[in-house]
Prior knowledge:
Layout: H1 3-11, H2 17-21, H3 39-52, E1 75-77, H4 78-82, E2 84-85, E3 92-98, E4 103-105, E5 111-116, E6 126-131, E7 137-141, E8 151-157, E9 161-168, E10 173-182, E11 185-196, E12 200-208, E13 211-218, E14 229-235, E15 242-247, E16 256-258, E17 261-264, E18 267-268, E19 275-282, E20 290-295, E21 302-308, E22 311-316, E23 330-334, E24 340-343, E25 352-354, E26 357-361, E27 366-370, E28 375-379, E29 391-392, E30 396-397, E31 400-408, E32 414-423
Parallel strand pairs: 1-24, 2-28, 25-30
Antiparallel strand pairs: 3-32, 4-5, 5-6, 6-7, 8-9, 9-10, 10-11, 12-13, 13-14, 14-15, 16-17, 17-19, 18-19, 19-20, 21-22, 22-23, 23-24, 25-26, 26-27, 27-28, 29-31, 31-32
Amino acid sequence: MSVRDRLAHTFGLARDSREAAAPPADRRGVTRRSFTLGSIAAVGAGMVAISLSSCGSSDVKETSGEPQVVDDSQLVGVLDGDYESADSPYNAVQEFTLPLGTLLFHSGGSWAAALMAPESSQHVNTLGTMSLSTGVLNTLIETPTQGAAYEFFDVRCTDDVFAWVEIDYATRAWTLIGQGLYNGQLNGDPVQLDSGDIDWEPPRFTTWNTSVIWQKMPLATGGASTKDSHCYQWTLGDTEGRELWTSHGRFAASPHVADGVLTIAPRVNVDEGTYYGMTAIDLTDGNHTQRDQLVLPSGVAPFEAVYVNEQFAFSIEASYDGRGSLGNMGTFIGREGGPYIYVRREPLACVAAWGSRYLIKAQTSHFVVDTEAQTYATLSAPDRSVDYGDWPASEGATSQFLSYATIRNEQGIPDHVTARVFSL
Length: 424
């Protein structure tokens, strides 16, 4: 999800009208901040609970590469009577008050990347880290490295690597930069990983261990629109990135890593039409082996996708007529052949999970879906938070879930940010 979308949801801002009119797969252009169920589902619920609660296998799954067009008999509806409501299993173990305008991004570990908006006429925004144990914010970079015309656009980190994008909004030129991180502070020299101009979308990227993984894609309209898209990985100590995947068309979702498995959604079956294949790639075996793939129906683009517990947890942002149940708006958990656990709500962010519990962003709070117990609960947002409530900073598989919300004062004016840490 772009920084512009995070700002819109966090502060209740309206999305750019041009973004709202664009197709779901292409809504991340550069902006200023940038059922009746059958017996199969009844049996499948128990099977899915078992498979989702076990993890750690490195098996390569058999896949057909065929689009998965299914009906409602393959869905296990969490909010449609197939799961029981339960009390929330979580309470915040840490709560921090942060300056208004702070955005957090947590890729696992003890530190979260922070995009901050200081009260300074010299800096529109700054970059830093936040400790999940103390809530202390460290300002790491105050001035863009590319010059006065540039601003900070996006940022991610792990405990070992820090990566960010700088952009010139006048020319739409951008640069992706990576640098080592140690104990929440920058370490070593920065490395320019990639760059682009007005024809190339600023990269969607993530961090994992000592690596930065990003997608370089042409904008849907412009001089490079017919060129291929690429996914790269750079690791500390390397002189340049290594290509992991070429997509003959734009990727449909941001890259995410969980338990050493990268999930991307490239174009597939390009000779047959517009198809997206959510693809799980093993980052730990040295060969970048494809572990699994799920091809969605024609024209259906995942909003977010991550491979957790040997299942895809993915969301569809809009409803597509005539595409079967996987063309419905909502969040799904499953793989090729089904069944699919389904949360019938508008998706807003990438799913986070630990064990059999999945945290799924709802309008103001989060659903906690337990696929083993077959229950769901609500993780409520803090009092006086703005309309979109708690926002997940964490994604993928994580034992610590970090969220943050913009809080209003007694006069109803946004006043500060509250960050909360939950031990999963």
